[in-house]
Amino acid sequence: MIRRSTRRRGESPGRHVLPGSTNENTRAAATTAAPRVEQHAKSRWVVFLAYGLLAAASQALFVNYAPVTEDAARHFGVSVGEIGWLSQVFPLVYVLLAVPAGIALDRFLRPALVVGAVLTASGAFLRLVADDFTWAFIGQAVAAAGQPFVLNAIPGLAVGYLAEKHRATGIAAASSATFAGMVLGYLLGALLPGENHIRTLTLITALIAMDAGLCLVAALRFPPRARPESAPATSGLRAFRAALGNRYVRRLCAVVAIPMGTFIALATFVQPLLAPAGVSESTAGLILALTMIAGVIGCAVVPVWADRRGREVQVMGAAIALTAGACLHLVLVPSTPMAFLMLLGTGFVLLPALPIVLSLSERHAPEAESTAAGLIWMAGNLGGVLLAAVVGLLVTRPAIAFAVLSAATLLALPALHWFRRLDTTAP
Q: pLDDT tens for residues 261-315?
């Protein structure tokens, strides 16, 4: 009787133990001690602060040339489409390295994060070897290789450094940091327009990446805390099999692929898509920066609200529908005021979907959270590669491009319904 009542108190609301998971057989033995340990567990927010700086630096590199696409094309003497590849290389490399990075993080969290920091900073400085497109692309590719080691770490860091009651908040804060990095990148582009400032933009983001990497390495001197409420994390190929074999994770991948792809396509090509409507490069950079600020605010508020009320699926459904509607408005009334209104609204409702999905993956795949996050990020970036490639072909026809994004985004609603059916029928 005592053991059963203790188990009830130890289980978190909304958490399901999946049949066949490595977590199931040991939870009964661990739950007697888990509540007492969790009561006194301390969260090391300093590690999350340092991590947030590196995540922000990584995303600033991702969008470094997006708000100054035409200026960068003139500076390097290449086409606008080729400049798009300086951003598109990030989701492309992510697709290739997402799973290996997730496996490495599940097994060696701190060393793998250091690898991510080194690759990010090294790639940023490689772009300064020569002021040409070739070295810019090489540097972006190396920095892109570091991105999976950084972004996949969010759920693992939450488990390792935060008490369970703080994890949803921590995941939301870390996700906000990634979008804050995009804000930084877009603001720099808006404040330093013109082809003469491309080299300056490159140098500034390189220094930011170096300083952020050093801060994270210093913060990682704190070891991750033990996992009192579950068995140790699965590692290696077993982590991959556990994550890939998890029905929740597979369906979350299907949910996230298209909306995240829509956002990546917009972040890459919104400046040239808005140019025919009379939106200047500096104005487009400001719109994108404000979009990210709206996303940061949304990530700080919406996921926490949704987690406390169990409304994660409803929030994601609203975000998908509103994003599709925003793209449709830009088809019908392309203008600066409409771009401000629609993209800021999209940032506020769509970007919080990412921390919601990552929180759900940590909840449903606790034995391989970093690998599960890698699969989710991979799905989103694969969607980004495909949709950005399509939009790149339609960059001279903005109305068609926005219409394609609107129609594609709506395809995520059936995937969300598919996930909801599984979630509501879980034992």
A: 898 888 778 878 888 888 887 788 788 778 888 888 888 888 888 888 888 888 8
Length of the chain: 427
- Maximum distance among all Cα pairs of the chain, rounded to whole angstroms: 75
Per-residue pLDDT tens digits for 230-261: 444 555 567 777 777 778 888 888 888 888 88
Encode 149-178: b = buried (16+ Cβ within 10 Å), e = exposed: bbbbbbbbbbbbbbbbebbbbbbbbbbbbb
- Cβ neighbours around 422 below 10 Å, total: 14
Tokens of 5: 């009542």
Residue 57's nearest CA partner among 144, 182, 152, 154 is 182
